Amino acid sequence: MNKIILGRYIPGKSFLHRLDPRSKLVLSFLFILIIFFANNWRTYILLGIFTFFCILLSKISLGFFLKGVRPLIWLILFTVVLQIFFTRGGPTYWQFGPLSITHFGLVNGGYVFCRFVLIIFMSTLLTLTTSPLEIADALENLMLPLKKFKVPVYEISLMISIALRFVPTLMDETEKIMNAQRARGVNFGEGGLIKQLKAIVPLLIPLFVGAFNRAEDLATAMEARGYRGGEGRTKYRFHAWHKNDTLSCIIFGLLAAILLFLRSW
Amino acid sequence: MQNVIEISDLSFRYPQQTDDLFAHIDLTVGKGEWVALIGHNGSGKSTIARLIDGLLVPNKGTIKVCGLQVNEKNVWQVRKKVGMVFQNPDNQFVGANVEEDVAFGLENQGIARSQMQLRVKKALKKVSMWEFAKHEPANLSGGQKQRVALAGIIAMKPEILILDEATSMLDPEGKKDVIQIIQELNQQENFTVISITHDIDEAALAGRVVVLNDGKILQDATPKKVFSRGEKLLSVGLDVPFSEKLKTALKKEGIQVPENYLTKKGMVDWLCQYVSKK
């Protein structure tokens, strides 16, 4: 489980760590959106420099980002190869039946590669510098307008934060049950597909039952402490919009403007 | 002494049961008292706690908390007055970290944020967990989590503190810590404490012990009186305190021991006297 870097959080005190999660979430989303507007080398170099600048700002070593790309590298290469072989146009360098390597193909392949890497770098940057709870808070805040459409925003955000809080607890329990079942002779991850699936049953059922009991205990404890739904509650956690957030929005605006300019130049 | 809890003619049975868990129980608890509720498994101790807090509804009889009758209309008022700490430290931790968990009850009451910060800090200092304020539950021991649960209740400033086997999953060290905090709350801040426990030594610290057996109150007296029943307690599925056990063992050796119940300190004093007389 430790191999997955996507979705992990590294505590720190850098400029990016201190940004309001709302601005981070929205800006990373918008950044991914404008990546699709880039259409020539100048624009990609601009975005690349910007991303690199952000990574430097986060004070997290580049290794983490490369690790983030690693699980997806085969998917990326597969897409790039398809682009190279099946895009026609410009001078042809090599041809065999329906497959051909053309100038356009190579360029497009390069663009697709850049796009993938930039998107992964940016989303990794978001999760590495923002704790899951901050993301949940930001989501709640951004979903608030949906309350008008009768979306239970408070309930959804409470569910997300309880789910996040119980992830480590349930992981521990899974580990415990697995070891207990191993001690009784269950082999996990061995044999054919059917056998492996069957081995999961003695793990899954106790885990489910445990989760039900936990849920009941938790609900009782919450009720005893006066929880009666989202209405009329105050919030202890609080995020303030700072000067830095405005600054990052301005920088992003500039970036988008330059990008649009370079695009048609 | 003013009564904070008045239970009269209480009967209760769970829907799937055919027999009453208990019938026609009367019990009053005065302000500032520390009452230990003991009894074997399934004697209905936890159920009484849940009835007081309005988490369960009685079949018959009335419960009054601070003059308010526990019913659908008053239940949220009652829950402001009653704070409950449950058995499993992990399953009652709502917040993502320590300070947020302590603030949870205050959030529910709609208390302003500045006020909340003050109260959370004060409550965490009281249980000496303030330096852990930013820690996540996964990084805390069971005893620490239980102290946080207590802080969450203290911050809400209830009048009655109910501990539903709150120390049963802790190691001896954690147990001692939690009991000491409860003792301070009871003696210095005049909290009314109802502790439900299997730990006889914990019950011996209370001012009053109520023994539940088969849906009836078997005895309601000071620990001294209850524990002087000695061996007879074993027959209702309960244990006796260590000093009682020591007395029984000495009796077997043919030594004349006093009949009345002695605390640990009393036992030490008596032993010193006994040895010096020889």
Automatic annotation (TrEMBL), chain A:
Annotated CDD domains: EcfT
Domain of life: Bacteria
Transmembrane feature ranges: 21-38, 44-65, 72-90, 110-130, 245-262
Function field: Transmembrane (T) component of an energy-coupling factor (ECF) ABC-transporter complex. Unlike classic ABC transporters this ECF transporter provides the energy necessary to transport a number of different substrates.
Pfam families reported for this sequence: CbiQ (PF02361)
GO molecular function: transmembrane transporter activity
Bilayer topology: Multi-pass membrane protein
Keyword Cell membrane among UniProt keywords: yes
Primary residence: membrane
Quaternary data: Forms a stable energy-coupling factor (ECF) transporter complex composed of 2 membrane-embedded substrate-binding proteins (S component), 2 ATP-binding proteins (A component) and 2 transmembrane proteins (T component).
Family designation: Belongs to the energy-coupling factor EcfT family.
Listed name of the protein: Energy-coupling factor transporter transmembrane protein EcfT
Entries under InterPro entries matching the protein: ABC/ECF_trnsptr_transmembrane, EcfT
Entry keyword set: Cell membrane, Membrane, Transmembrane, Transmembrane helix, Transport
Entry's Gene Ontology cellular component terms: plasma membrane
Record has Transmembrane as a keyword: yes
Localization (cell): Cell membrane
From TrEMBL, chain B:
Keyword 4Fe-4S set for record: no
Membrane disposition: Peripheral membrane protein
Entry keyword Transport: yes
Single GO molecular function: ATPase-coupled transmembrane transporter activity
SMART domains: AAA
Location in or out of the cell: Cell membrane
Annotated InterPro entries: AAA+_ATPase, ABC_transporter-like_ATP-bd, ABC_transporter-like_CS, ABC_transpr_CbiO/EcfA_su, ECF_ABC_transporter_ATP-bd, EcfA_1, P-loop_NTPase
Family: Belongs to the ABC transporter superfamily.
Protein name, as recorded: Cobalt transporter ATP-binding subunit
Organism (species): Liquorilactobacillus oeni DSM 19972
